[in-house]
Amino acid sequence: MGTAAFEAAHGADLWKYAAANPAFNKLIDDAMACDAGLAVSAIIESCPKVFDGLKTLVDVGGGNGTALGK
């Protein structure tokens, strides 16, 4: 198996590179929050019954609660 393109270009995988570079880490966080906002909005609009009867919902991953904010 070869080296991932990002790792070959930057000398570290995406997450290690982000951990060592605060500006890049912020870019990744902002991009993930944007993606979560779009995806969750589409799910809520298209599949509202998915949430019927839920008493607890956990936002795992984005880092800033974007999904729960919707």
Automatic annotation (TrEMBL):
PROSITE patterns: SAM_OMT_II (PS51683)
Highest taxon listed in the record's lineage: Eukaryota
Record-linked Pfam families: Methyltransf_2
SUPFAM superfamilies: S-adenosyl-L-methionine-dependent methyltransferases (SSF53335)
GO molecular function: O-methyltransferase activity
Coiled-coil segments on the chain, per record: none
The O-methyltransferase C-terminal domain, residue ranges: 5-67
Any single GO BP term: methylation
Sorted UniProt keywords: Methyltransferase, S-adenosyl-L-methionine, Transferase
Cited InterPro entries: COMT-like, COMT_C, SAM-dependent_MTases_sf
Full protein name: 3'-HYDROXY-N-METHYL-(S)-COCLAURINE 4'-O-METHYLTRANSFERASE 2-LIKE
Organism listed in the record: Salix purpurea (Purple osier willow)
Lineage per the UniProt record: Eukaryota, Viridiplantae, Streptophyta, Embryophyta, Tracheophyta
